[in-house]
Every structure is written in C-alpha cells, then in structure tokens.
Design a protein that fits this description.
This protein is an alpha+beta fold. Among the domains are: about 130-195, no CATH class; about 325-450 and about 535-605, no CATH class; about 455-535, no CATH class. The chain contains 20 helices and 13 strands. The chain has helices at about 15-25, 40, 45-70, 90-120, 130-140, 155-160, 200-250, 270-280, 305, 310-315, 325-340, 345-360, 370-385, 405-410, 420-450, 455-475, 480-500, 510-535, 535-560, 565-605, and strands spanning about 5-15, 30, 140-150, 165-170, 170-180, 190, 250-255, 260-265, 285, 295, 390, 395, 615.
C-alpha cells in the first residue's frame, strides 16, 4: 500500500536557511518537492553529478579487483581498511591518484599487448640472433626475409637466390635468401624483421608482463586501503548534490530575504519533523496533498509483498491517487514463475541456492540481497512443480513408488472430453481471472480518482465481461435455467451498452459517445482475446522445460546403456549435471521475463496502471 503523505510549506529567513537545512537533513524525513523550473537549473550541478559518476566507476573497479582476488584466495581474503573520514578535497586527491594508477596500468597493458604481438609476429622465424644477422650484413651478404603463400613458393628460388625455408605455417611459407646483390624480381612479400632477437623479444615480453602485474598489485593494494574512503567520498558528493538540489527547488520572496521550501513527509513520521520545527521556531504550514500535487511514493507492505517491490519499481512507482500494485503483483508473479518453471526438482535447487545466497555461503554480486526472494520462488516452484507432476524432467505419474493419493492430486491429463491438456486450460483460466481482477481494480481506482459518472464505460465493460462470465458459468453448472440465463445476459448487455456507448462521457455529445464506444469495442475485442491467449505461455514454458529435461534424461540413459561401466556412469552423470544446469538456467530466465511481461503488459494495461510516480527520497544526512 502507499504511505500517506503530509504536504509542508516552510518560510525561513535567508540568514537562517543553511542552518535550517542542516537541521532538516539531520531529521531525514522530508522529501523536497521539485519545482517546474528545477530541471533547467540542474545544469548548475551537472559537474558534480559527473564527478559522482566518476567516483562510482572507480568504486566499481576497486570492488571488482578485490572480489576477483578474494574469489581465488578464500583462505586469506583481503581486508578493507576503514574509512579515514577525509575531507572532500583529500578524497578527490585519492580519486585522481587511483585514476592515474589505472592510466599507468593501461599503458603497461598496452606494452604487454605490443610485446606479445611482436613475439607472435616473429615466432615463425624460430630462435635467431640479430647479432649474427648483423655480422652477415657486415660481411657483404644481402639477407632477405620473405613470406608467400605455400602454393606459390618456387623451389627454383633455392638455386637462384640461395633460399632457405624457415617455416611452413597456416599455408604460409617463411624463407630467407642469402645473396651478394639485392633481389628485385622475386614474387614474395618482404618481411620486416625485428631489431631484437627471439630471446630479447621473450625477455621484453616477460619484463612488460612483470611491470604490468606489479602495477596491478599496486592498484589492488591501493583499492584495499582506499575503497571505503572512495565510498565515503561519493556520499559526501551526494550530500552536496542534495543540498544544491534543495537550493534549486527553493523559491525566494521579499527581495530574496525569505526562502520558501515545499516538501512531503510520511504522515506517520511528522512528529519527528514538527518537534524540530517547533524547537527552531520555523514557520510552516501543513496540509493534505491535492490531486495536482506530485506526491512522492513510499510503499508500505508486509514482509512477503516487500520482496516484490523492486519489480514494481522496474515499471514505475504508482502515483499518489493510484493503488499500489505490489500486493496483487506478488502472488501472481510467484504463481506465474512457478508455472513457467514447472519442475519440482528445480524448485528445490532454487530454494537451496537462495538459502546459500542469503546465508553468505555463495557470494555472487548480481544476487546480493536476492536470497530471500529466490528462496520464496524456489519454494513455490517446488510446490507447483510437484502439483504439475514433474521433477528433474521426470513425469511423477509414471513412477510406481509415488503413492496413488499423491498422483490423484497432480494436475495432469486432459480436460474432460475436449482433448486439451488440463494445464493449458488452467493457464487460460488464470489469465481470465487475472484480467478480470485488473478490470475490477481499474474501475474501482478510476472511480476513486475521477468519480463514478466519469467511469461508466469502465463499469459497463466490467459488468459485460464479468457478469456475462458469471451467468454463463452458473448456467453451465445447472444453477440457472437456460431461459433465466438468456434474460440475464440480455439485461447485462443492455445495461452495459448504456455505459459503453451512451454515457461513457456524460459531458460529450451522445453521437460522439457512440463513435467512441464503437472504437473502444474494436480495441477491447481484439486486445482482450490476445491478452488472454498470452497466458498460454504459462503452460508452454513449463512444458518446454519439462520436455528438455526429459530429453537430457533420455540422452543420459542412452550413454549409460544396459551394461554400464565406470566410463558410462561418468558420462551419464556429466550429461545430467550439464544438461539440467543448462535447462535450469534457461527455464529460470524465461520464468522471470515472461511473468514480468504478463504483469507489465496484460495486467497493467487492463488495470489502467500508469506507474509515473516519483519515489520517496528524503533529504537526509548520508555521512556520519
């Protein structure tokens, strides 16, 4: 749900304004409102934003160096030095030093690349001495180094030019000529020899590599000593940016002697703010936000729903007048993910992996903080996968040791006499329910925001679709007679038509309303069917993952054979591990992306969700 906000306006004398902002920052609960002209003034702090990006880039680089070292040195990991609480100027000096060291390391890396390239270029000529070649030249011999395609090499050159083949490599012939006079008519490409011999080139490469490794070690030591200082620096710069943004979004009155600031505070935290305001004697006014206000959004949900708030944030925060979609998103995304995975065995592996991430036994940066949600997704996949009758690509309904009572609970087989899989019908049924729920939320939410009379069209469509479904289901279940159902559908259609075609906008001409209703009907008829059919992916992805897992099982069984030996068992185990790991990763990726699509496209579209809200970001102290 969305946390209730209280709007504040402050009037502060200019000489006391900086002290007031410091007090406000210490309280750390007020979200400063952005003025319309604020974006244009952001040019004033663009350099500081760019500086913070530089610092963050170096923090990322330093962290990567330390993590790379620790990943191969678990027994003696690097221990970061604590932050020294340096000033911003001292921190910027450290930043420049770190960037300079990295520039030096890059230059040394280029030296290594150049030395490697030169050694590889000269490698076909083998072990030679530049000194000996120089002595031959001093004796009057013309030494020529040539290359040509092996197919055009002419053995007569050995008599004509005293040619010696040095190497044949990748269809290229490398050869040397020794003559008294320069050669001008040979059909080969002259090769530019290095001034250094092969041993000198190897020595140069080793030295370049040693210099580069030493510089990398120096940078790593610098990172260990100063990573926390860089993190401290980025917080300091962030605070300066925050203060500048507050000044940008401050209105001035009375010849710039009075500063006017507008902001929002969570209503449950206003006591902390107002206590400070009364102590400082600051004049302020508080009020309920209006519909025109751009109220920041702070979500407040239970422990389970809170795990899925980042998914809401990926699309966009709700506006203040909307419903928080997370309480609906959470259970449906969980269900969709589990159905797309569709394998109880993979669910157990996800559960164990999530536990390992949460407990710190597995440290992968991209999964930091995601251990809990991975565990929840794994647990749901285990339950749903077993209900769908699949574990590690094996159909549980075919196993004799699985109790018949458990098999009876599994959702498998065909749906009645239709010939369709019951899992496919289930996926479509979930889609119908999901979209109907979205339409209910849209009708209720829009009525709350704009009033009932402005949403007769939404209520008309909801009555037509949901009411029609209920009547049809009651009739199929023999709870309503055919005649009663017929008249009920006629009544529902007539009432719905009034809202859809006549009163969809009470302030508009009825003829225009009819045209708008017809266009809305076209969009609804074409879009709604496509939206519902999109939910087949819940069935298709689970089926594809199960079939691929089964294929790996069959492949392993083929390798194992009827009379397995040690090699057969080794191949069987390797195939199962590699195959199911690949299938698990692919299934998990699909099970994440496609439920997001069903939520962001099908559900949010039918729910009328905008996602244009601004996230609550209090003006608070970041550096202790």
């Amino acid at each position: 749900m969305i946390t209730k906000m209280t709007k504040y306006d402050f009037l502060v004398f200019h000489a006391q304004y900086d002290a007031f902002l410091e007090k406000l920052r210490n309280v750390g609960v007020l979200h400063v409102a952005t003025l319309e002209e604020g974006d244009a003034n952001l040019e004033l702090i663009r350099e500081k934003i760019a500086l913070q990006a530089r610092i963050d880039k170096q923090i990322e680089t330093a962290s990567a160096l330390i993590n790379a070292y620790n990943s191969v040195n678990d027994a003696s990991p690097l221990v970061l030095a604590p932050a020294a609480s340096l000033s911003i100027s001292d921190g910027l000096t450290l930043l420049e030093q770190f960037e300079k060291k990295q520039a030096e390391a890059e230059a040394l890396r280029q030296d290594v690349v150049t030395a490697e390239r030169e050694q590889q270029r000269m490698a076909p000529w083998g072990d030679y001495s530049a000194l000996q070649l120089a002595r031959l030249a001093d004796a009057g011999f013309k030494i020529g180094f040539y290359t040509c395609a092996s197919r055009i090499y002419n053995p007569e050159w050995e008599e004509m030019y005293n040619a010696f083949i040095i190497n044949n490599s990748t269809n290229t012939t490398y050869f040397v000529t020794v003559t008294k006079e320069p050669i001008t008519d040979i059909e080969a490409e002259r090769f530019e020899m290095s001034e250094s011999g092969s041993k000198e080139l190897e020595t140069a490469l080793n030295q370049a590599q040693a210099n580069y490794d030493a510089k990398k070690a120096e940078i790593r030591d610098f990172a260990v000593a100063n990573l926390e200082n860089l993190k401290h620096l980025t917080l300091q710069v962030s605070e300066v940016i925050d203060i500048d943004k507050v000044h940008i979004n401050t209105r001035r009155a009375a010849d710039d002697t009075v500063m006017i600031l507008e902001g929002y505070c969570p209503t449950d935290l206003i006591d902390n703010l107002e206590t400070m305001l009364k102590e400082e004697g600051v004049y302020y006014e508080s009020a309920e936000p209006t519909d025109e206000d751009n109220v920041p959004i702070k979500l407040r949900n239970n422990a389970f729903t809170r795990l899925f708030e980042p998914l809401t944030g990926m699309y966009g925060m709700p506006v203040y007048q909307e419903f928080d979609p997370t309480p609906v998103l959470a259970p449906f995304f969980l269900l969709f993910f589990a159905m797309c995975m569709g394998d109880g065995g993979y669910g157990v592996l996800l559960l164990l992996f999530g536990w390992a991430v949460k407990s710190g036994k597995v440290k992968i940066e991209m999964f930091d903080g995601l251990g809990s949600i991975i565990m929840v997704l794994g647990a749901a996949t285990t339950v749903i996968g077993l209900l769908l009758g699949t574990a590690f690509g094996v159909s549980l309904t075919t196993l004799d040791w699985v109790p018949q009572g458990c098999k009876d609970l599994m959702i498998t087989g065909k749906f009645g006499d239709t010939g369709f899989d019951i899992q496919m019908i289930l996926a479509l049924g979930i889609g119908v329910f999901h979209i109907c729920l979205a339409m209910i939320i849209k009708a209720v939410g829009y009525t709350k925001r704009y009033g009932f009379m402005q949403n007769l069209s939404n209520w008309g469509w909801l009555l037509l679709i949901l009411g029609g479904l209920i009547v049809v289901m009651l009739s199929m279940g023999k709870f309503l007679s055919v005649d009663v159902a017929k008249y009920a559908l006629i009544a529902i259609g007539a009432i719905s038509a009034l809202g859809i075609y006549i009163f969809n906008d009470p302030k508009r001409n009825p003829l225009i309303n009819i045209g708008a209703g017809l266009w809305d009907t076209y969009n609804m008829a074409t879009g709604l069917l496509g939206d519902i059919l999109s939910y087949i992916r819940l069935y298709a992805l689970g089926l594809a993952g199960g079939m691929l897992g089964s294929a790996f099982n069959d492949l392993g069984a083929m390798i194992l054979g009827t009379n397995p030996g040690i090699g057969s068992w080794a191949g069987f185990i390797v195939i199962l591990i590699l195959g199911h790991t690949l299938n698990l990763v692919m299934s998990a990726l699909g099970a994440f992306v496609h439920p997001l699509r069903l939520t962001f496209v099908e559900y949010f579209k039918n729910a009328g969700y905008e996602g244009k809200g601004e996230k609550y970001a209090p003006f608070a102290k970041k550096v202790n």
